[in-house]
Amino acid sequence: MAKCSTAPSRRRVLKASLVAAWVAAAPGFAQPSPGITVAAASDLKFALEELAGLYEKQTGQRLKLVFGSSGLLYTQLLQAAPFHVFMSADESFVLRLAQTGKTLDQGKVYAHGRLALIAPKGAVVQVDEAFKGVRLALQQGRIKRFAIANPEHAPYGQRSVEALKHAGLWEAMVDKLVYGENVSQAAQFALSGSAQGGIVAHSLALAPSLQSIGDFALVDPSWHQPLIQRMVLLKNPPAAAQAFYDHLSSPAALAVMSRYGFALPRS
Known about the structure:
Helix content: 25-40%
Order of helices and strands: EHEHEHEEHEHHEHEHHEEHH
CATH architecture of the largest domain: 3-Layer(aba) Sandwich
Strand content: 15-25%
Radius of gyration: 18 Å
CATH topology of the largest domain: D-Maltodextrin-Binding Protein, domain 2
Structural class: alpha/beta
Oligomer: single chain
CATH class of the largest domain: Alpha Beta
């Protein structure tokens, strides 16, 4: 496989053998609806679905969640996709969008993300925080494919590249990398048999549906640039969008985020 900077057409393309309901591929434009549409980074999938479900039960407000890589969602917003709230895995996309005048303001940090090394239970890769198992499996030629999110537009993919370089494994791993369009798809590749393991969001690794089929270890945050996650309202938001945006900073919402492994911003 060519390095990350090469054109996507030269990359190995995988079709996952497991079709899972939790996978969120790169989204198309959302269609307008009476509810509120939230464009959210894929690392939020399980946490935000739980949070939104509770909010809908409490308020009756309909919420449409559109998951994808932050970079692709940002591109759609530049093209006037009909979203009300944007929750990015990297604050730079929100700050850049604010500079275009499409947002109400610069938004606020809602969480700090973490990376996790993940592999199927009983796989050839033993997961550990020091990546000793990955290093050994590489030396033994047992890793043929290793999954990360596409670093061209997914913040978790960019940080995964940084972590591999810090661990001194980049040169040995680069030709074995397979890229999910977002971090949720990378998790599918890592756990479905399409790869021997991968680096994904800690928030995904904590989901019960993934814990039942995979093992994970946290990646030392000093190995990569921080994942500062920022959200923002789009310009002229309806009152219902403002209400949900405010709810995302409530103790109840923060408790859900914390349970999925996110570090919470300082008040």
